Amino acid sequence: MLAQLIWWSSIALEMVLLVRGFYSRLAYRLPVFYSYIAFVILQEIARFLAFRWSNGVYKNVYWLTEFLGLAIGSLIVFEIYKVSLAAYPGTARMARNVLAFVFVIALTKGIAVATASPTGSPVGSTALEIERALRAVQAAAILALVVLFLLYSIPFGRNLRGILIGYGSFVGVRVICLAFVSQLTHNFWFYAYSASYLAALSLWLVHLWSYEPIPQAKVSVQLEGEYLRIAATTRRHLQDTRAYLRKAVRS
Amino acid sequence: MMELLSLSAGVVLLVLLIAFASKRWAAARDMRESALPIGEADAEPCPEVFVSRVFSRGDWEFVHSLRSEGISKLFDRERKKVALLWVRQTSVMIRKAMREHASAARQSENLQFSTEISILAQFLTLIVVCGILSVAIQMVGPLFLGGLARFAQRLSRRVAKVQESLQPAPLVKTAGRIA
Known about the structure:
The structure holds two protein chains of two kinds.
Chain A: H1 2-23, H2 26-29, H3 31-53, H4 55-84, H5 89-116, H6 127-151, H7 158-180, H8 188-207, H9 226-250
Chain B: H1 2-21, H2 24-34, H3 48-55, H4 58-65, H5 69-105, H6 113-140, H7 145-166, H8 169-178
Helix pairs in contact in B: 5-6
């Protein structure tokens, strides 16, 4: 009963979100995000039909759509990065490096798992284990982006903030649930995951009701080599403070 | 191990998103600064002579030689307050420097990843040092910190000597030849 309620509420909210997206023309500004919502609606219909058909087909459809959703979801992270950092090439460069680092770590881990497997490939791994690993990488990538946004005080519009918080919290809860879920059963973690998606949808609906432009930062024209001067000044400032602290305490 | 790592990533992500969602992150930062007396956030660092008096034992010895418990207690309390205010002011200065750097660097086309990481490491070290200092001042008072620092210095010298003595002979020889 509860699962049905969550399921129908999710579909209703997704429909409203999609309609509002086209009405406010946000769907044209954030195409990946709205494609994801459209995909989720189609995915739910496909799963419902497969469930009515046979259990075996449902299992295959479930995992196929789950991984497709995960892939499109990763593109949302990329869209957030692209839109929010368009005016900040410096932070964008940092983000690229940090994300590359996260993916190298994930790739290394994947290779390690594959080589540890007796057959040389992770055939023994279940779909759930693969999803667990992929979601962890997704969580790490979002985490790295949020840290950078906070560190460089990147101004966010209401729309993008809603997408990031909603999708980030959905991934965070999914990662936590997957750590406790051993098989796909309707236990507490199943409902927690479903409810977290419902919460994300409600958050998106509030934040994406209408278009709101991203606040623009003051444009500062920088000469070549200006960054090196700024970095050197900051370093000197921090080093002076360290010496100052040391001297004061040792006096 | 993987489960634990992904679980921590999920928890940390949720906590950070809550901080990011509630505008309190920025508001708390502004409030911390506005809680300081007017102009303190923009103030220059205290003169070294003044700061060295906060942590020196000279005044403490004088006050305790008066053998008045009330004055001694008042002195300890006030000195602790001054020391904590100084640490807070220093911490605000560090944050301000980092914020100014971030707002200038975020738009720079030629930002260097390694330089940013090194600045971030320096910043975090200083923030941690300020945190440790605050806790130490709360626990033992500012007057004993000088002693603690000297003790730490002596200890680190001793550790360095032990490390030197443990270094294998051929390595030392090689190093000598290269030098």
